[in-house]
Design brief:
Blueprint: H1 2-19, E1 30-31, E2 43-50, H2 56-60, E3 69-73, E4 76-78, H3 80-88, E5 95-100, H4 107-118, E6 123-126, E7 129-130
Parallel strand pairs: 1-7, 2-5, 5-6
Antiparallel strand pairs: 2-3, 3-4
Helix pairs in contact: 3-4
Length: 133
């Protein structure tokens, strides 16, 4: 019985760690009506984040250099054309969560939404942080 409990404990510890691997460190925009996240294992999370930490524009205000921004799914980076191909491999009833850095140019999340539409994926959520009182 003890062996089974240790195996279950090990399984839950490893599976809990895996659910957080598809979340990059991004500064989400704030929204007054943000709702708690549902079931992250049932969807694809696409993170739009800045990859160049030495970029002066990103540190001070907004970086508009498109080559500095990446779309990442489960730790793998994709260009817009690669992202189109990657999303076509997913079933159309799959949900997608787009988490974009608040400083990211709007055209990047917009391009991801268009790629989802081309792949036939229409269940799209957008990540936001709740306004702190």
């Amino acid at each position: 019985m003890i062996d089974i409990m240790f195996l279950l404990l090990l399984f839950f510890m490893l599976s809990a760690d895996m659910t957080q691997r598809d979340l990059e460190e991004v500064q989400l925009p704030t929204a007054r009506t943000a709702q708690p996240d549902g079931k992250p294992e049932e969807r694809i999370t696409i993170n739009v984040h800045h990859r160049n930490s030495a970029c002066d524009d990103h540190a001070s205000s907004f970086c508009r250099d498109a080559s500095h921004w990446l779309a990442t799914i489960r730790g793998e980076d994709y260009t817009p054309s690669q992202l189109d191909e990657r999303l076509r491999q997913e079933p159309p009833d799959r949900k997608v969560m787009i988490r974009s850095d608040a400083r990211a140019p709007y055209r990047l999340p917009q391009r991801i939404t268009l790629a989802c539409a081309k792949a036939g994926i229409y269940k799209i959520d957008v990540g936001a942080a709740k306004v702190k009182p």
